[in-house]
Amino acid sequence: MSQESNVSNDASAASDASAAPVPIDGRLDGASPRGWHYFEVFRECPRKFYYEKFLGFRSVQKRAALVKGKAVHQLDEDFLRGKSVIEAKALCRGYLESERDAFFDDAEAQEAWEDIERAWDKWLVCFGHSDRAKYDIVSLEETLQMPLAERVVTGRLDRLYRDRETGGLVIADRKTSKSQTAQGICDGTDLDDQLVLYSALVEARYGEKPSVLIDALGFRKRDPSIGRMESFYSTDVVRDVLHGLESDMFDIEARIGGTLAQPGTWQFAWPRHPLKWKL
After folding, report:
1. What one-character DSSP code corresponds to residue 241?
2. Residue 204: pLDDT band by 50, 70, 90 thresholds?
3. According to the model, what pLDDT value does residue 214 have?
4. How far is CA 191 from CA 161, 185, 186, in A?
5. pTM, rounded to two decimals
6. Residue 38 main-chain phi, psi, to 5 deg
């Protein structure tokens, strides 16, 4: 029997009303913090949310893109902490070597490094060197949390700056893509609620409202696409987004408490057949 068949049978049994599955994701209990990905997956597809958070399935996907994105984040962090460009690149190459199995072969791994180096060098010219002169680092990869609807929401910030000229706080969020231009990355990120949540988290922690930079890097063979968008979210926007996240939490918990016990009684019944998902 194929692996897919085994998974399908297991999931069918697990989702039977007489044997409702126990959530494998600790964030489904009453006390654990909810990060942005928790809401993002639920909004994208409640069915996918169920597979991941209850049954522990993960979609089969290539790790190369994730490794490339993390490599760029590491370059940013090492450079902004004061390392030279040569030192930062050497550390990045070491990270890519440690993740060699994410790539099909040595040629693909080398191509990934060339894409990263070409794009990051352009970012340095456009923004990197000036950022080191313009901003003081408040934190890198800081995790913040705050209460929301008797629960806790959390977010991990790429960078938090203090503008030396204005004194204001600035969230800088790195986004990378191979399929989108920098403009496409910025537009897509600005339309979702992730950075609005991060803005609320910073205000709750530091007592002041930050501005937000979306730092976009599109990998291209010849001419990488580099761009930046600055936003400032008003109190009304933040309130509306937090209200939406609160509604999502109530929706999720209603489905946990109702749909699993009484399949089909809610607008969305939890799925019984996971198809191409694997443990």
Report:
1. H
2. very high
3. 94
4. 23, 10, 9
5. 0.79
6. -55, -50
Contact present, 20 and 261 (Cβ < 8 Å) = yes
Give alpha helix (H) positions in 21-170.
Answer: 36-44, 46-53, 64-80, 85-98, 106-123, 129-134
* Residue 155: Cβ within 10 Å count: 23
Q: Give pLDDT, residue 257.
A: 60
Which distant-in-sequence residues (6+ apart) come within 8 Å of 19 by Cβ?
Answer: 13
How many angstroms separate the CA atoms of 24 and 189, rounded? 29
State the virtual CA torsion across 128, 129, 135, 138 in degrees, nearest 10.
60
Ordered DSSP codes for 56-80: --B----SHHHHHHHHHHHHHHHHH
The C-alpha atoms of residue 92 and residue 74 are separated, in whole angstroms, by 7
Angle in degrees, CA 92, 64, 279, rounded to 5:
125
Placement of tokens 């800081």 in the chain? 142
